[in-house]
């Protein structure tokens, strides 16, 4: 992975937050690190002699974030939250908002407490493709442990307070000076340092290490020797529009990657194994519509029935989202994504493009394995994730 840091471009930046913006933009400019609002960054600084955590505001993209995109939160208040036995989502949001020194700033990232707990000035968090490709394999825990022996490695835990609380408990007697970073299985990676450049460099070094492993152990060679299938995309678009209740835009992906993916045997099992990182689910749903023949209408009805069963299995007091699919994998044709406009369809296509590569790589490492169906539901219907879309 290319290191984009430039001493020439950064030499004029003297303040903590300015350097935080600079390296955040570097991270965000690489879609193999973060996609469309993914990841978060922070810096601990002082304002009027008070310790303040400037953390990425919810809804901002790292590639374009500016100083006003960071939420200034009192560090002591966040550390006190980590020591609580319980903290509901609504109370966490309210407490973080109350601890902000600028009430007009955006809501802090749901990972603000976790950023506060890491005892370094700069903290970088990404959902790097190479890291999650390895950790989302059935042998992921062992492989990650072998590749990153000096990292704190954690199983998947719901982001927000639960994750922060777990790290608080695990790190109370932890020697952070010997820790090179944190890897959250099925989720992503954290690096940190008291120097912005060193924290960024640590991220690039770790991800490059994972990429090197994949190039040797899970290289990809796409093949598609069959004729492309004829498929009535216009009918699919109309039927999905009817289900959504508005005219959708579509994005058709017939790259060699998409064709190879959609040519897989037993497509219904192969392409329905879950999301690459948990937050993707609010855009893609857990699984796609699978179309192995031309009976589009019945396939959509079957998808909706299964989605409603999935909802009923785990729902408590949630309201069911529209059960129609957000993208389709079409046998020997490719991928089609659906959005309320062209931008949304393209965003979903970007996510699926990265997911396909990760699935194929993880299969070469013993098999792709996402978070559980229950964890998927909890993430899809988490009010703090749904708020991001709004």
What does this structure look like?
The chain has two domains: 211 residues, Class II aldolase/adducin N-terminal domain (L-fuculose-1-phosphate Aldolase), CATH 3.40.225; 157 residues, L-fuculose-1-phosphate Aldolase. β10 and β11 form a beta hairpin. It is globular, with a radius of gyration of 21 Å. The strands form two sheets. It has a seven-stranded mixed sheet with strand order 3-2-1-4-7-6-5. A four-stranded mixed sheet has the order 8-11-10-9. The two termini are 33 Å apart. It is built from 17 helices and eleven strands. It has 390 residues and is α+β, with helices and mostly antiparallel strands.
Task: Spell out the key features of this protein.
11 strands; L-fuculose-1-phosphate Aldolase; about 400 residues
Mean pLDDT: 95
**What is the end-to-end distance?**
33 Å
CATH superfamily of the largest domain: Class II aldolase/adducin N-terminal domain
Tell me the total number of β-strands.
11
In the CATH classification, which architecture of the largest domain applies?
3-Layer(aba) Sandwich
Number of domains: 2
Classified by CATH, the class of the largest domain is Alpha Beta
